[in-house]
Design a protein that fits this description.
There is one protein chain. Residues about 390-410 have low confidence and may be disordered. The strands form three sheets. A six-stranded parallel beta sheet has the order 9-8-7-10-11-12, with helices on both faces. Strands 3-4-5-6 form a four-stranded parallel beta sheet, sandwiched between helices. It has a two-stranded parallel sheet with strand order 1-2. The protein is α/β, with parallel strands linked by helices and about 400 residues long. The chain contains 16 helices and twelve strands. The protein folds into two domains: about 5-170 and about 365-410, Glycogen Phosphorylase B (Rossmann fold), CATH 3.40.50.2000; about 170-365, 3-Layer(aba) Sandwich (Rossmann fold). Helix 9 (about 210-225) packs parallel to helix 11 (about 250-255).
Length: about 400
């Protein structure tokens, strides 16, 4: 099997000369053209509704040209980056090959959390249309979690037989390689914490949707109530929120107002090795997000055998099994978040077993080895023609290719 990857050219040293060095990989770069000063705060919506679909048109048309030369047997599109190929299928179904589609950015439909404001609803309309076009041109649409299947059905206007669950994955070999007991001790030493003291960890971009302000409020509740704080937080504790973003100043004000300046720390972004040292050092991982997709950071924490307190946003219910691998609370409910953290830390003897349960779940369902098998099975099913072209009509003809062997496929 060979793979053709169509993507943007690398920027800012994001890849090395060996990143794409594989005998079975062919890389085609399509420039991403946007307007001057894009990337600054406040320009994201404009870029994603203009430059991104334009890139998707051009990248998808390149995929279509490769298909028509006979060198590609299956196209796997990521988000609106496959728009040009979806349009080619609509214009000439018989001149194309099967199409598997991963929708990205479902939050722009207001589908995995609080609804979008009116202005954002209008601004994101072109991007939502592009994503729907891609979904409705595909034999199969991927939902990255079972909990997200209803979201995909509702907002992409597709039917259930065309949706398959293939999770996002983590590389357990890489996690284990980066796990360093000495590094974990070092980060605790820097905070003046012993192995018995409490270290709460959150990871994510500092934005309102990550819900870190609710976590600060929850910690303020715990610290203000000795009956909860004494058995839970203990005499020495810290909460570390790793990440950077536009919400930092607001969080700093909230932390100061709560009197938690010494206890809740914002170190900013860290490198991969240090990030995994923090995971290994944590007593409990907390993810108070208001809306979410799959949450790779939660999977990474579970891979490090950490029990998790999280909200039930997005795909998190597929990962956090209440009473087994952690606690789930409603997004935005600071009081419930405080109760869950208090309960977790009041029963610290349970956290190790819950962390082991989380690791076992990742190994079964979210490790690359498991996910690749599911993805290849999906390719085989689509190539064998067992799923018809998408249509809202149950009488749609079965027109997908039927006899192309998987070993010849590419994307």
């Amino acid at each position: 099997m060979r793979l053709t990857l169509i993507t943007q050219p690398p920027r800012d040293g994001a890849v090395t000369s060996t990143t794409f060095d594989h005998e079975r990989l062919d890389v085609r770069f399509v420039p991403y053209w946007t307007f001057p000063f894009a990337g600054r705060r406040g320009t994201t919506v404009i870029d994603r509704s203009s430059a991104y679909p334009l890139f998707g048109w051009r990248a998808g048309r390149l995929a279509d040209s490769l298909v028509r030369r006979g060198s590609i047997q299956l196209v796997h599109g990521m988000g609106a980056a496959s728009l040009g190929y979806a349009r080619a299928r609509q214009a000439d179904w018989f001149g194309t090959v099967p199409f598997v589609f991963n929708p990205h950015g479902m939050e722009e439909f207001g589908s995995t959390g609080p609804g979008l404001g009116v202005l954002k609803q209008l601004a994101y309309a072109p991007l939502r249309k592009a994503v729907r076009v891609c979904a409705q041109a595909a034999e199969r649409i991927i939902a990255t979690d079972r909990a997200l299947v209803p979201v995909v059905l509702k907002h992409l206007r597709v039917t259930e037989p065309h949706v398959s669950v293939v999770p996002n994955a983590v590389d357990l070999e890489e996690v284990d390689r980066l796990t360093d007991a000495a590094g974990a001790r070092d980060v605790r030493d820097r905070l003046g914490l012993s192995s018995e003291d409490v270290l709460l960890l959150g990871v994510g971009r500092l934005e309102a949707n990550k819900g870190f302000h609710h976590l600060v409020a929850a910690l303020a509740q715990l610290a203000a109530r000795p009956s909860l704080a004494e058995p839970a937080l203990g005499t020495r504790w810290r909460c570390v929120l790793l990440g950077e973003g536009p919400y930092r100043a607001r969080l700093e004000r909230d932390i100061a107002s709560a009197g938690l300046t010494e206890a809740v720390l914002l170190p900013g972004r860290v490198g991969e090795a240090e990030l995994h040292a923090w995971y290994a050092a944590a007593t409990l991982f907390v993810h108070p997000t208001l809306y979410e997709g799959s949450s790779i950071v939660t999977l990474e924490a579970m891979a490090h055998r950490r029990a998790v307190v999280a909200t039930s946003a997005g795909g998190l219910p597929d990962k956090i099994l209440p009473g087994r691998s952690g606690w789930l609370v409603q997004p935005g409910d600071g009081h419930a978040l405080a109760q869950a953290i208090g309960e977790a830390l009041a029963h610290r003897d349970r956290l190790s077993a819950m962390g082991q349960e989380g690791r076992a779940l990742v190994e079964r369902e979210f490790a690359w080895e498991a996910v690749v098998v599911r993805l290849l099975d999906l390719y085989a099913e689509v190539l064998a023609g067992r799923i018809p072209r998408f249509s809202s009509s149950p009488a749609a003809p079965h027109t997908a290719p039927t006899s192309i062997p998987l070993k010849q496929s590419g994307t």
